[in-house]
Amino acid sequence: MAKKLRKSNQERQENKKNELNKIQELNEKIQQWDIKPNSSMTLQAKKFSDLPLSPKIIKGLSDNGFTKMTAIQQHSIPVSLQNWDILASAQTGSGKTLAFLIPILEKLYKMQWSEYDGLGALVISPTRELAIQTYEVLLKIGKQFNLAAGLVIGGKDLKFEMERIYKMNILVCTPGRLLQHMDQSTGFDVSNLQMLVLDEADRCLDMGFKKTLDAIISNLPNERQTLLFSATQSQSLDSLARLSLSDYKTVEDPTLRNIVSAIKDKDNKTTTPATLQQSYCTVQLPKKLDMLYSFMKTHLKAKMIVFLSSSKQVHFVYETLRKLQPGISLLHLHGRQKQTYRTDVLDKFSKAQHAVLFATDVVARGIDFPAVDWVVQVDCPEDVDTYIHRAGRSARNGKNGKNLLILTPSEEEGMLKRLNARNIEPKRLNIKESKMRSITNNLQSLLFQDPELKYLAQKAFISYVKSIYVQKDKEVFKFEELPSEDFAKSLGLPGAPKIKFKGMKSFEKAKELKNMSRQLLLLKNADENGEVNTKKDKQVKTKIDKMFERKNQTVLSEHYLNLTQPKTDKKGDDNDADSDDDFMTVKRRDHVLVEEDLPELLIPTSKRAQKKALSKKQILLNQGSSKKFVFDDEGNAKPAYEVLGEAEFAKDGDLETQLGKFIAKENELMKTADIDDKNIAKAKKLEKKRKRQEKERMLQEGYYNSDDAESEEEIRYVVGTGNLDDDMVSDDEDNKATRKKVKYSRSGKDSDAESDAGDNVIQIENPETLEDLESLTAKLLQG
Ligand SMILES: Nc1ncnc2c1ncn2[C@@H]1O[C@H](COP(=O)(O)OP(=O)(O)OP(=O)(O)O)[C@@H](O)[C@H]1O
């Protein structure tokens, strides 16, 4: 028995030695690799197996059907393997994900990284969807490795994450939650980090994560490798590169250890693939929905993503078009839905053969839906980069795809100019008016029947107008040219909700009035000759003068305060026009929704308005009980109830007859009122029921984000080797002992300990839920 054990130990040692030798060989080969883009080595390496890569990664790749490399993989993987920092940009769908995942796995493997070495690599993605997708690819190709990987994309149960995050070797995450862990999770140590990857790096910046990224990067060790990947390159990306890549400016100096290789896809000058057919058409804003519906009706056998500018637009278009039953299955996705619902939609759309997905730009980047035939950009993208990324959801990895950009006449010239400047020249498509089907009447009747839909339409209208208003590129987005009335009608609304740009107006007016008040003060201090006395403090003032002054100042400042109120709140926080939700209010005119039913945007928030309302109330209170007057033909006011003289009263019969008549009349009135009341009560009951059902349906479909955190679980883990199972790490002493051994074994001296760790059976904490991505703990890259 002992002999057998010794033999197996010997075998293990032998195996380990061989493995280390092979790693040594791989390292030597990659150091000799000529990474120049035109070198024969680079150009001749067509398959993954042509590169000096470990058998583990080759197996992981081939098991998933990846054998040939794409251009970006061919050019960037050898450079990454030589430990250079990289700023890589390549077309959408060109395989960037593998281009950074392979070097991560390969590097950690060659360093013989173990679960006790802590976090070795960090991948930061701008959206949850992209992070999930990257994580899934990592799981697939990394099965052969003995590493722990986790997905941290936000969620409520911070404690749960805190307890596990320190065990991870590779983390795929979104920026906000990562920073939270850096700040709050005591056990989370990033000091050993070897690689940082920023996927869609420019998008991370566009989404306002700059400060978060700066903070994350400042927490990371300087001695690390950094890879920045994006399909487009913006100036902000350059500035990030300067911040996060070492010696960015020393590109030409090959003697420095950390230089940047800016790798671009040499074959293509533009960032859109050649297999993508690009076209555009021009349609008046009020005709857009007709155009979309007609397009869908003529493409029932297609898989299509329809991009709209806001979640409210998406919600409205989805809810109404599904009621018109176009004959193709419809899905919708935006950032206000629950993560579980979003994941479900992604899954459904990925699997669907023919379907339409209405979406915001939350899926514009990185998401890899298979076989999308059409991308339809119904609302104009905010810039060319967004256009490229949206269009890039189709024609991925050499496949064919089509993109249709719908522009309004006022957007056409500006947007085409922007696209042409980037070598993008979509073909113009002429729309046959005769083929276009108008759905305005259908929408009107839908909205008439369903107040919920009307409410959605109003929100969609406002959010669209708002989206145009806030666009930076005023040459493309001309707010003043919006045909708001017709646009509202095209959504089925009876008219455009009036939008008042509260912040802007009050800001301008406040400036004006501030000037006026200054003039008033100066005038008040003017001497008898009318000259302005600026040295008023030197005047001799009586007590009454002072009181008068103080009183007037108060009046003035109150008045001034009222005018400037919308700009500054009590705490002095800036509330002006830039505030996202507060910058416009809507005056409604055609419906009777009560205030609590209104969207936040519609509630008048100005303190002035509230004060005004208060004062009206006050006036009414002060008035005491009201008197009712009627006006005669000459316009004279008389009390509504007058006591008649006896003779006049007797004209209509004696008291008894008149009383009888009066009672009969009142009885009649009461009967009708009773019927009316019953009808109203019935209608109310029905409405209540309908609302309840609607709410239930919406809950099922993933709206009501407010309780997201309550119900969803957004963190998932792959936990590495079995000895990371909670039970096994519960005993601290044992754990410490194992750590010591494993550390020691990395130097190759204690192969028993190493193989013990390696021999552990892999534990999957919740195998059933692993696949649907909703498990809190999943599994592993196994050895
Ligand atoms: N070497 C390869 N062989 C076959 N298919 C590949 C290869 N590399 C990537 N793919 C496939 O190509 C598709 C696009 O890859 P990926 O999502 O990595 O593109 P991307 O460049 O990151 O796109 P985007 O810029 O839109 O994020 C995926 O379906 C992926 O599985």
Give your account of this protein's structure.
It is elongated and about 130 Å long. The chain has 29 helices and 20 strands. Among the domains are: 19-254, Rossmann fold (3-Layer(aba) Sandwich), CATH 3.40.50; 275-490, 3-Layer(aba) Sandwich (Rossmann fold); 706-782, no CATH class. It is an alpha/beta fold and 783 residues long. Strands 7-1-6-5-2-4-3-19-20 form a 9-stranded mixed β-sheet, with helices on both faces. Residues 247-269, 504-515, 525-615 and 704-783 have low confidence and may be disordered. The structure holds adenosine-5'-triphosphate. Adenosine-5'-triphosphate (ATP) binds at residues 66, 68-70, 73, 90, 92-98, 231, 366, 368, 392, 396-397. Adenosine-5'-triphosphate is lined by residues 66, 68-70, 73, 90, 92-98, 231, 366, 368, 392, 396-397. Its EC number is 3.6.4.13. Residues 8-22 have a biased composition (Basic and acidic residues). RNA helicase.
